[in-house]
Amino acid sequence: MQHYSGFGLLKHSLSHHENWQRVWRNPTPKKKYDVIIIGGGGHGLATAYYLAKEHGITNVAVIEKGHLGGGNACRNTTIVRSNYLWDESAALYEHSMQLWEGLAQELNYNVMFSQRGVYHTCHTLQDMRANERLVAANRLQGIDNEMVDAEQLQKEIPTLDCSKNSRYPILGASVQRRAGNARHDAVAWGYARAADALGVDLIQSCEVVDLEVNDGKVTGVKTKQYGVIKADRVGCAVAGNSGVLAKMAGFELPVESHPLQALVSEPIKPFLDTVVMSNHVHGYMSQSDKGDLVIGAGIDGWVGYGQRGSYGIIEHTIQAIVELFPCTSRVRMNRQWGGIVDACPDASPIISETPVKNLFFNCGWGTGGFKGTPGSGHLFAHTLANGKAHPIAEPFSIKRFHDGALIDEHGAAGVAH
Amino acid sequence: MLHIYCPHCAEYREEEEFHAAGQAHIVRPLDPDACTDKEWGEYLFFRKNPRGLHHELWVHSAGCRKFFNMTRDTQTYEIKEIYKIGEKPSVVDSSVPQEIASGAAS
Ligand SMILES: Cc1cc2nc3c(=O)[nH]c(=O)nc-3n(C[C@H](O)[C@H](O)[C@H](O)COP(=O)(O)OP(=O)(O)OC[C@H]3O[C@@H](n4cnc5c(N)ncnc54)[C@H](O)[C@@H]3O)c2cc1C
Ligand SMILES: [Zn+2]
């Protein structure tokens, strides 16, 4: 793998940047792999990387029906934080957060991880209580999170309307200062490049249309382009399409797929150097390095696989943003899109064995799995290498929907992030 | 934006007047105490989540507040039919066994 550095940039400028090595190979698949990972989003690629790096399993293929990172990996609003409520979630998201903190060095790829802080504004007493409880829980878990009052908040974010004049005046906010965002594409590309360098085959434009299951055991995947490819173990990380893959394997999941929308404005001068999120007026916003305002919404409530949602959601979201930041009322919006998010009833993900032997699922990350990308990949690799879950992943088994040990994160999951 | 026909109001209205209430025809176990944890968990949480035809429950929440069923394609979002509670769908996925597709009327 060609090492990226400032010096390299300088050196390549002398040859007009015409001699950069290809970032990854484009191999034809072998007949058989130790592990096949279905889905070349952030989670699938991270899984492949850690399988090779931490477990020495390099006879691995990632099979992606489109191009790498073309699903939710490139559609999300990139919020990364670890201030969830329950100990199980705290362990999971903090595990991921700590990997984020060293990720650019680890991958030798600038993932533009920016710990610019994430605020949750509170507009009612219930909001205040819920956030104070969250802060207290996080403190006990050793995770940074603090409350600020409206006056302090106004000082920290001058453009936010913290006055008493708004329809739902802001009473205060919780803020995780280590939280922030990252460059979504770079995360997928960085993992892809590093996995490829360790020998992982990244197979693009190859759709899995069926799973080969014999005697309750998966033995391979059937693809549209290359027929059957055998594998000892198969890991599924297809986000919104998890239900479709589960159907191929002959079971149902406690998951439903919904459109989740987002939009960005025209680029404007820097005016917001952090992330603000309101569960009450229901919207959130940050500003990208290009200058566009990145705005996120809640899900469309019906099942949908179309990567687009309804206009009503956009209208409500923009109302919320204008309520929070009245100065944005005349900013024009540039683009709007949707992704398919696979949501669990308890707003927590699934990293789990399944009713089919040697077949494992990593899904249900719903509206908030971008932040989980490194941790999810790291833990799922452990599951695939050992055939059983890492202690941090154990509570996230599908079994919890049978024994009732749900991990209810509806409060902390908030709007959708 | 979906444009939805309410069979009770006998009118087309905008999606915002409605609320999607999830998969239709889920039958509550007659004797919950007799269920295993697995059966009860599956009743509560496990869903078909199909890419394609979906039979789903809607409520005209900002209108007459009555429930009804809809068959909709979750890929194209096309609404195939609206039918009342207690009725069976007439548009069904031929690859799905009939008794599952129509279920018990609920
Ligand atoms: C609008 C929006 C905003 C979001 N904002 C945030 C946020 O701020 N913070 C946050 O933490 N999370 C956020 N999320 C959620 C986050 O994007 C997802 O949870 C996460 O990206 C899912 O993991 P992934 O990257 O691996 O998924 P994906 O990138 O969707 O990867 C799944 C891949 O599987 C492939 N696939 C599917 N079926 C098959 C098949 N049959 N054969 C082969 N390949 C297949 C797909 O093509 C896709 O590339 C947001 C999501 C959306 C849509
Ligand atoms: Zn009505």
Describe the structure.
The complex is a heterodimer of chains A (417) and B (106). Chain A is of the alpha/beta class and 417 residues long. In chain A, 30% of the residues lie in helices and 24% in strands. Chain A is built from twelve helices and 18 strands. In chain A, the strands form three sheets. In chain A, strands 1, 2, 8, 9, 10, 11, 17 and 18 form an eight-stranded mixed β-sheet that branches. In chain A, strand 13 and strand 14 form a beta hairpin. In chain A, helix 2 crosses helix 10. The longest helix of chain A has 17 residues. Chain A is globular and about 65 Å long. The two termini of chain A are 33 Å apart. The mean pLDDT of chain A is 96. Chain B is an alpha+beta fold. Chain B has one domain: Folate-binding superfamily (Folate-binding fold). In chain B, 13% of the residues lie in helices and 30% in strands. Chain B contains two helices and six strands. In chain B, strand 5 and strand 6 form a beta hairpin. The longest helix of chain B is centred in the middle third of the chain and has 9 residues. Chain B is globular. The C terminus of chain B is likely disordered. The chains are: A alpha/beta (417), B alpha+beta (106). The interface between A and B is medium-sized, with 24 and 28 residues.
Instruction: Give the helix level of chain A as a range of percent.
Output: 25-40%
Compute the number of helices of chain A.
12
Q: Care to count the β-strands of chain A? A: 18
CATH topology of chain B: Folate-binding fold
- Sequence of secondary-structure elements of chain A: HEHEEHHEHEHEEHEEEEHEEEEHEEEHHH
Computed Rg of chain B? 15 Å
Secondary-structure element pattern of chain B, one letter each = EEEHEEEH
Instruction: Give the end-to-end Cα distance of chain B, rounded to a whole number of Å.
Output: 27 Å
Structural class label of chain A = alpha/beta
Helix content of chain B: 10-25%
- Number of H/I helices of chain B: 2
What small molecules accompany the polymer chains? flavin-adenine dinucleotide, zinc ion
CATH architecture label name of chain B = 2-Layer Sandwich
- Percent strand of chain A equals 15-25%
For the record, the count of structural domains of chain B works out to: 1
Number of E-state strands of chain B: 6
| Biggest beta sheet attributes of chain B | 4 strands, antiparallel
Net shape of chain A: globular
Provide the CATH top-level class of chain B: Alpha Beta
Largest sheet of chain A: 8 strands, mixed
